[in-house]
Write a structure and sequence with these properties.
Length: about 325
């Protein structure tokens, strides 16, 4: 089965997912808003700003024109930053209407839209009319682009309200090293994917401060409890959070220097200023915006999320990290469950 697939977003994750699809024999069109990046991909077959020491197949073609990338596609994979999802989706909707297309919609971005607090599948459904799309699927799980690039064993989840849509994503992505499971709980998968970046910030900060494995394990475990509480308040299945897009994604993101959220937290823990961390990271740090969204959601819904609140106070209110940790540790004793 060879499909025509547009991959929107040529960052590290988008370009490597495009490579996986290309390797599977699909006609893949990788779109970027940056003409210089497109030229590099098409002439040098590299994407050096995002993925060093990796050469893409010449059969993978990059586009700077969105309409050309979407011509007669069977599926569209969104891998753009959260803040760009709505604007890109609106452009896509106009093109799909003009071309009278109804492709599968998949996204592999991880975040919550600011101010609206909406999951990314909800944003796609709002911006792209039902007559110009099939069901929305999210692909998520413990997956660093750098590891997928070297064909390390990777397992992810394809979640959708439509079993057929989830199976479609499973089929187009499956390789000998990239295994895809299906899950009907799109709410839980999207919330787990977004909020684990908050915990990665905290884990990086603990490392930067010199704390050991006990502290990191405590943060990850109690952080997962917070994610589960917020997710289930929206109707997510609590089992999702002990799966690939819950505990799996937390492990990979909160323990590895490949995670830009972990690296950002590490630098903050070492005393770097937030603006400096953002400026020299060179890529979007999704956990920063997600922390604000999750904190505001927790207050709106009355969900206890003390770790998220502490990280919010450090990032947005300038609280000293060690003070925030001390206050967390001195909270009144309570039952674990």
């Amino acid at each position: 089965m060879s499909e025509k697939i547009a991959v929107l977003g040529a960052g590290s994750w988008g370009s490597i997912l495009a490579s996986v699809l290309d390797e599977n024999g699909h006609d893949v069109r990788l779109w970027s808003y940056n003409p210089k990046q497109v030229e590099e991909l098409n002439t040098q077959h590299t994407n050096t700003h995002y993925i060093k020491d990796f050469t893409f197949s010449p059969s993978l073609v990059a586009y700077s024109d969105l309409a050309s990338a979407l011509d007669n596609v069977d599926a569209i994979l969104f891998v753009v930053p959260t803040k760009a999802i709505r604007s890109v989706a609106a452009q896509v909707a106009t093109i799909l209407k003009e071309k009278n297309l109804q492709p599968e919609l998949i996204h592999a971005s991880k975040g919550i839209e600011q101010k609206t607090y909406k999951r990314l599948s909800q944003v796609l459904e709002e911006e792209i009319p039902a007559e110009n799309r099939k069901a929305v699927t999210v692909v998520s799980g413990p997956s660093h682009a750098e590891d997928v690039a070297r064909k390390d064993i990777t397992l992810v989840t394809a979640a959708s309200l439509s079993p057929d849509a989830a199976k479609y994503a499973q089929k187009i992505f499956m390789t000998s090293y990239f295994r895809v499971y299906t899950n009907p709980d799109i709410i839980g998968v999207e919330i787990g994917a977004a909020l684990k970046n908050i915990i990665a910030l905290g884990a990086g900060a603990l490392h930067g401060l010199g704390y050991g494995d006990n502290a990191k394990a405590a943060l990850m475990t109690r952080g997962l409890a917070e994610i589960s509480r917020l997710g289930t308040s929206f109707g997510a299945d609590p089992m999702t959070f002990i799966g690939l897009s819950g505990v799996g994604d937390i492990i990979v993101t909160a323990t590895s220097a490949n995670s830009r959220n972990w690296r950002a937290g590490d630098e903050l823990g070492r005393g770097e200023k937030l603006d400096d961390v953002i400026n020299h990271m060179g890529m979007v740090i999704e956990g920063l915006a997600t922390t604000k969204a999750a904190y505001e959601l927790s207050r709106e819904r009355g969900v206890s999320m003390p770790i998220t609140e502490a990280i919010y106070q450090v990032i947005y209110e300038g609280k000293d990290i060690r003070t925030a940790i001390s206050e967390l540790m001195q909270r009144e004793g309570r039952s674990e469950f």
